[in-house]
Amino acid sequence: MAERTESESRKLLGRLRETLAQDSAGQERLDRITHLIADSMGTDVCSIYLFRDADTLELCATEGLNPDAVHQTRMRIGEGLVGRVARSKTAVNTPDAPSAKGFRYMPETGEEIFSSFLGVPVQRLGESLGVLVVQSKDARSYSDDEVYALEVVAMVLAEMTELGAFVNNDGDGAMGARHTQPVLFRGGTGQEGASEGQVYLHEPRVVVSNPISDDPHEELRRLQEAIDSLRSSVDAMLNSLGRGADKEQVKVLEAYRMFANSRSWVRRMEEDISLGLSAEAAVEKEQSATRARMEKVPDAYLRERLHDLDDLSNRLLRILTGQGSDTGAEMPEKPILIARNIGPGELLDYGKKLRGIVLEEGSVGSHAAIVARAWAIPLVINAKKILTEALNGDPILVDGDQGVVHLRPEDNVAAAFRDKIAMQAQAQERYASIRDKPATSVCGHTVALHMNAGLMADLPSLESSGAEGVGLFRTELQFLTRATVPRRSELAQIYGSVMDAAQGKQVVFRTLDIGSDKVLPYMKPQDEPNPAMGWRAIRVGLDKRGVMRMQLQALIRGAAGRPLAIMFPFVAQFDEFRDARTQLLDEIEREKKLGHALPSALKIGAMLETPSLAFAPRQFFELADFISIGGNDLKQFFFAADRENERVRRRYDTLNVSFLTFIERIVQRCQETKTPLSFCGEDAGRPVEAACFAAMGMDALSMRPASIGPVKSMIRQTNIAELRAVIDEACGSGAQSVRPAVMGYLTSKSIS
Ligand code: PEP
Ligand code: MG
Question: What is the Å distance from ligand 1's center to 251 Cα?
Fold first, then answer.
């Protein structure tokens, strides 16, 4: 870059800093800035457009256009050249604006006399805040250096906007203060329930308060030092992983190292610094560009890599500012966790103290969502852009039922919300009153209701929910919460304590379901193109007999002479079940020889999670002591729709005629061999679905503890035999789903 441009640009930023340092009102500052930019760049016009709301840009200050147009001229995103810059988040540079694509004539600004146009987005970390424009009468084309210099200025503007530099003291400023307005986010339901609390960011944002510097040498030195420190920390992380480390983690760190060593990344930041930005601002400018790119990349893999780069920028910012990832706010009294996404392990680390969770991404079928559900923590997923808006400590309302989040709510919204919470508390009282009653339908049919669990901490819910037992104990959660493989004695002790806590009620232990999205930090992960259909659950258990044997021994020892129920996950064919069962019986023999107490009764079951198992030979159904339908997996394979992919997951209703017909077939097969059948997927916890499953002939349902009350209440109000007739009729009617007919029936009977 030419020396002249560099020093010009530095001079401009230097003047900008002086202007910003002056104690003036927001509007005055904006006016001075436009004057200063037009003057420094030798243009006839400089204008600043800022977003009034999510879709509308407003002319907030101008040098050269009609001053009366300020705060009058507005345009929607995408409208005119300014709107085009805002939408595309990229610069528009044209010597002949009136004939450029998208030009819109705005008579009030008097802009038709200006031929050349250069507009750059004012954006911060990928969030559009506005557009900065320069225009000239002559048909000049702005040089790359000028575009670049204007982008640097826009970056400073964005930073200052974030810091509230353009808000008037009297409140009616050039624009409202940021992060103070109420904002509504519409996402999806991850876990029902309403909760009120304060924002707690999983990864707090770094604040840059000094975007401009007049000592580029010092800033370059700081950047270099920070990058050196970043590189050595990435190297150290890689070295500490050692052999047998999680491949995915190694891959991420290797990508980090590649980015950290990327010359072009560093060079771009160095150029920004030489134009007058501080080291922090240079990092953030690059981060903004990465985020803007991230939004446009359709390829999920590439997007993940850009996320890595984003993460790396965060680390670099933390080194530069000394703001560590854990130096964010103290955990507030009622923490509502906000994150881009979160793994089950990280969520377990937070524990039950969270009052709510809001994810920018996330999916209902993920195990983090299952953990949230097990704990009945309201969870909203897909709340786009919440991370750019929310600040630690902000008041927030999470409505898991509607998948809606109110950030910094108005008083009346908060009041209505509290009413809703109170109503839910009343419903809880109603559920408590039937806690010790059976789930017997109006027509006298009783369904056993069990709860799903996975942690010792879940067991107290057995008593409070009124569940008859634990229908699914996901043993892998114990493995996910620690850094090394648990020892057999430790596991035996845990399983023993679980049974102690169950006080004689049955606990069905599911053997490890590792793989898919449940990756253990200490197990060598497989590089699989599709882990959900890969080497997981019983497939791992049968191939790596050591781990399965260890777990089976721990279960037998934990039972210590009590009845024991074990089921194997993800069985796809008879042989797998037979093999696993034989292995369990062998372990029993071994324990007997060792003189250990044997379970007083043993039930060995299988999870039916793959369509193939429904068509297994009759001998399978005879050999299994019980079968439990893992609806989460079964449904994803039945419809070939990834349970973690929100886009396809929602397409297929559980009450779809094909699926219910399939369920009916499984019920028939179990009835032929008198094999007890239950359903333990998430759908069992939804009252309408649960009533339909009961009507289809399911003997038991296993669900998260908080669902027991609503499901029991629904079944106790319903005539299951009548409901079955409604389902059968709807199945024969050519409908795609029986839901409309079922809902119609329930409404006609005033069942809710
Ligand atoms: C299921 O697939 O329905 C199930 C209960 O198992 P998980 O959700 O743990 O895969
Ligand atoms: Mg499953």
Answer: 28
Residues 341, 388, single domain; the answer is yes
What pLDDT shows up at residue 169?
A: 56
Co-location of 370 and 415 in the same domain: yes
| Average pLDDT of the segment spanning 695-722 | 95
Ligand with minimal distance to 512 CA:
1
Q: Is the CB of 631 under 6 A from ligand 1?
A: yes
User: What is the domain-level CATH number for residue 274?
Assistant: 1.10.274.10
Q: Is there an atom of ligand 1 within 6 Å of 609 CB?
A: yes
What's the predicted TM-score (pTM) here? 0.66
One-letter amino acid identity for 320?
Answer: L
CA-only gyration radius of the chain, Å: 31
pLDDT digits (tens, 9 = 90+) for 98-109: 888 878 877 777
Measured CA angle at 534 (ends 532, 536), to 5 deg? 85
Closest atom of ligand 1 to 634 CA is 2
Give yes or no: residues 493 and 635 share one domain: yes
The 10s digit of each residue's pLDDT in 202-235 is 877 777 888 888 889 999 999 999 999 999 888 8
Predicted confidence at residue 328, as pLDDT, reads 47
DSSP letters for 517-533: TB--TTS-----S-GGG
Ligand 1 contact via 476 beta carbon (within 6 Å): no
Q: Give the CATH number of the domain where residue 656 resides.
A: 3.20.20.60
Domain assignment of residue 39, given as a range = 2-169
**Quick one: 233 and 314 in the same domain?**
yes
- Which range of 83-92, 359-368, 711-720 scores highest in mean pLDDT? It is 711-720
Q: What share of the chain is helix, strand, coil (3-state, %, to 5)?
A: 50, 15, 35
The alpha carbon of 274 and the centre of ligand 1 are apart by a number of angstroms equal to 55
Q: Is residue 220 part of a domain?
A: yes
